[in-house]
């Protein structure tokens, strides 16, 4: 995944997307269904203006340049929420077609066109979209075909197989393929992505092995210091290089990391009813204030104005 400064980098949760996007121009009263309805209608149709599949030379499932493949995965997950909460079928066929077109031959969101650039983090955004489809009971492929849950598990399984104990005491590398720049970096979003998928798969399937995986990933993030459980402030940092055995941490903070960890902790609390995960959910929500300036969310690490505090 490459980092762009666009608002779409914040799509790790649709809530964060709504906040970052809405602050530009759209009025929203979160106590009014009509207001939410109008705002999300505007955003969803605006987002789909960038869809490439309908356009000459376009590819199904992809958005126009400069939007990357992973961002498309994030966008489809958000569009499923729009379909579900606003009960609007306008884009249902496009979402369905896109999620199936990009599965790759092995049904794990590793399509051949992406192999030169695909990282664990890229893959997980499509896995999250498939998970979203399963949870929302979005129209499944025909019975004999791979179902949404199967696709989400395909992403989880391939990521879990890449767990690398040889350096840093564990963790996923950013890149899947050795030849890609970033193979020597263990970034938080890849690992938090695995943590997040594990939490949702546990809740959806009732299989506790997924909880064990999420615990393992969380502990590793905390042990390396990529996640910092401070006295009052809990933060999530960007990543660390294997050349120092992950002892040197890049301390940039991104909204999608905190968004994925907050929601992952909440899914785990919902499934396990273990108060530890409730506490973590609340602590990370508190820590997310680094991204707020007078209640307005912004990407503190790359947007110039704001009250960013390290
Ligand atoms: C459904 O969503 C589309 C795209 O946002 C919008 O143009 C259309 O008005 C919506 N339909 C209804 C009934 O709200
Ligand atoms: C892969 O790229 C080719 C050439 O641009 C395109 O025709 C095809 O639809 C793409 N497939 C996927 C799954 O993106
Ligand atoms: C899911 O959707 C199918 C039809 O697409 C329906 O038959 C089924 O009852 C739904 N399940 C739930 C739990 O809503
Ligand atoms: C790398 O870090 C892990 C986890 O802290 C530790 O177990 C391991 O011994 C370290 N390896 C080296 C070569 O320092
Ligand atoms: C539970 O999930 C694990 C991890 O994916 C898998 O190996 C195991 O077969 C699953 N167990 C059941 C009963 O489905
Ligand atoms: C996280 O690490 C800190 C020390 O760095 C430790 O005090 C805390 O108990 C750890 N949390 C978990 C859940 O292991
Ligand atoms: C888990 O979520 C469901 C709704 O999806 C809710 O009814 C239930 O109360 C939640 N459980 C906990 C412990 O929060
Ligand atoms: C917060 O945002 C306002 C504009 O709304 C800006 O003037 C101010 O500089 C920001 N605060 C900080 C600390 O950057």
TrEMBL record:
Q: Which reaction does it catalyse?
A: Random hydrolysis of (1->6)-alpha-D-mannosidic linkages in unbranched (1->6)-mannans
Which keywords are on file for this protein? Cell wall biogenesis/degradation, Glycoprotein, Glycosidase, Hydrolase, Membrane, Signal
Quick check: keyword Glycoprotein in the entry? yes
Q: Which InterPro entries does the record cross-reference, listed alphabetically?
A: 6-hairpin_glycosidase_sf, Glyco_hydro_76, Mannan-1_6-alpha_mannosidase
GO aspect biological process, one term:
budding cell bud growth
Q: Where is this gene product found?
A: Endomembrane system
The record's similarity note reads:
Belongs to the glycosyl hydrolase 76 family.
User: Could you identify this protein by its name?
Assistant: mannan endo-1,6-alpha-mannosidase
Lineage start: Eukaryota, Fungi, Dikarya, Ascomycota, Saccharomycotina
């Amino acid at each position: 995944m490459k980092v762009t400064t666009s608002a779409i980098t914040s799509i790790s949760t649709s809530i964060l997307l709504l906040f970052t996007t809405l602050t530009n121009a759209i009025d929203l009263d979160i106590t009014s269904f009509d207001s939410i309805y109008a705002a999300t209608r505007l955003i969803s149709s605006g987002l789909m203006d960038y869809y490439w599949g309908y356009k000459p030379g376009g590819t199904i499932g992809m958005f126009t340049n400069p939007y990357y493949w992973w961002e498309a995965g994030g966008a489809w997950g958000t569009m499923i929420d729009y379909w579900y909460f606003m009960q609007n079928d306008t884009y249902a066929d496009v979402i369905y077609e896109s999620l199936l077109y990009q599965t790759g031959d092995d049904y794990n969101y590793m399509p051949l066109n992406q192999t030169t650039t695909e990282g664990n983090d890229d893959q997980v955004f499509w896995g999250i979209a498939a998970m979203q489809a399963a949870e929302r009971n979005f129209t499944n492929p025909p019975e004999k075909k791979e179902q949404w849950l199967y696709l989400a598990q395909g992403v989880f399984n391939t990521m879990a197989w890449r767990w690398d104990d040889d350096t840093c005491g564990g963790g996923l590398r950013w890149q899947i393929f050795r030849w890609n720049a970033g193979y020597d970096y263990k970034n938080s979003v890849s690992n938090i992505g695995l943590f997040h998928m594990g939490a949702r798969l546990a809740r959806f399937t009732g299989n506790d092995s997924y909880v064990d995986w999420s615990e393992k990933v969380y502990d590793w993030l905390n042990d390396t210091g990529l996640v910092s459980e401070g006295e009052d402030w809990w933060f999530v940092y960007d990543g660390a290089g294997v050349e120092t055995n992950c002892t040197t941490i890049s301390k940039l903070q991104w909204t999608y990391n905190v968004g994925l960890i907050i929601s992952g902790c909440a899914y785990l609390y919902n499934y396990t009813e273990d108060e530890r995960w409730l506490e973590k959910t609340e602590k990370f929500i508190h820590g997310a204030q680094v991204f707020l300036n007078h209640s307005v969310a912004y990407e503190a690490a790359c947007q110039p104005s704001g009250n960013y505090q390290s």
